[in-house]
Design brief:
By secondary structure, this protein is of the alpha/beta class. It contains twelve helices and 17 strands.
Length: about 375
């Protein structure tokens, strides 16, 4: 089968790989019909994540048709079209029982903090992803969800990560009616977080980024204010305070993570020298921009090592910080309802539909922010 293969930093190609096989009675094999390139994939692509191995197939956002099931799979049947959440979760451990499917204690023996993920470095469990024609889906009785009849596959594939992550970002921010919410980052997750903030009653949503085309997009898609932190202000925290009667934002959402720009020291130590678990610029801004007693929600991905953040300001302001990998399975029923009733339009953020064979070009466009790209979707030959 055709599958994307990581060859080293900023080098991927699509090549023939062996077909995935049933390895456990609860496995299923899915013929992929859509997969996405995610901002998290760029952390891998750019060599910023430890233990990203040559030959790995990325892609934690995918949907497809069940073509084979193990002997103990009871909740799916061959022919079902399914949404495959990016979490690999057993459904039985202490954390899964609490709805923390992103923190499954059984699916990832390589780490103690996170659960398993499709298509990530081996710190995510080493599961090959869905940027391929076929994928093996473990614990098939747990997370895969049959796509509701009539749902557009372009909507469905974005329910595997982007929409739930944006929604959970807004949920973790503890937004109260009338709150001012600041979202750092106008990538797909930041865009969706800004859109979902309104669902929780936000009174004002402000998004910051460095790319004008992304700011123009989020301004139209999420009906929010959007500013370029490189052009519209000298100091981000001062700008936000000035915008909020010098109080600070009620909630800040870090939808950027390790690859944040905007601070030379953070960029050099976090992105170039890898002395930190990535650049913590957005986190720094969030702590200094939120009001006293405010809440910071973190869905941007950072590495496992330490980061330089103003911890004294965090404590002295009485802040609350919440973060986690998204629990997609927990959120799916609510989000499917939002899509079906038209409250959310996930496919509206798709700007590029790219043949799987041209995945390398998709990565180049997305990584270099070319051609006004917002969200690229890869389509295998059998789905075209």
């Amino acid at each position: 089968m055709l599958a994307m293969s990581f060859r080293g930093p900023q080098r991927v190609r699509v090549q023939q790989k062996p077909m995935p096989e049933i390895k456990h009675p609860e496995d299923a094999i899915v013929r992929v019909t859509r997969s996405c390139i995610c901002g998290s994939d760029l952390h891998l692509y750019n060599g910023n994540v430890p233990d990203t191995r040559v030959g790995m197939t990325f892609g934690h956002e995918f949907i497809g048709e069940v073509v084979e099931i193990g002997s103990e799979v009871t909740k799916l049947k061959v022919g079902d079209m399914v949404i495959v959440p990016f979490n690999v979760a057993c459904g039985r451990c202490h954390f899964c029982k609490q709805g923390m499917f992103g923190n499954c204690h059984e699916a990832n023996p390589e780490a103690t903090a996170v659960g398993g993920f499709f298509g990530y470095a081996h710190i995510g469990g080493g599961y090959d992803g869905g940027q391929a024609e076929y994928a093996r889906v473990p614990y098939a009785n747990v997370s895969p969800t049959v796509i509701p009849e009539g749902m557009d596959p372009d909507d469905a594939v974005l329910l595997t990560d982007v929409v739930p992550t944006g929604y959970q970002a807004a949920e973790m921010a503890g937004i109260q009616p009338g709150d001012t919410v600041v979202v750092f980052g106008a990538g797909p997750v930041g865009i969706m977080a800004a859109r979902c903030a309104w669902l929780f009653g936000a009174g004002r949503v402000i998004v910051l980024d460095e790319y004008d085309y992304r700011l123009e997009f989020v301004k139209n898609y999420a009906k929010c204010e959007a500013y370029n932190f490189k052009k519209d202000m000298e100091d981000v925290a001062m700008f936000i305070k000035k915008q909020t009667d010098w109080m600070g934002a009620d909630c800040c959402i870090d939808a950027v993570g390790a690859e944040a720009a905007g601070n030379a020291v953070q960029t050099i130590t976090g992105r170039k020298l890898l002395l930190q678990g990535g650049s913590a610029t957005a986190m720094h801004w969030a702590i200094n921009s939120v009001k006293k007693g405010g809440i910071i929600s973190v869905v941007g991905v950072y590495g496992p090592t330490d980061n330089l953040i103003p911890l004294g300001n965090f404590m002295n302001k009485g802040l609350t910080m919440r973060g986690n990998q998204t629990s997609v399975k927990r959120l799916l029923p609510r989000l499917i309802e939002h899509v079906q009733n038209g409250t959310l339009n996930p496919k509206g953020i798709i700007t590029h539909r790219i043949p799987l064979e041209e995945a390398a070009e998709g990565y180049r466009l997305f990584s270099d922010k070319l051609d006004n790209i917002i969200k690229p979707v890869l389509i295998p030959p059998s789905a075209r």
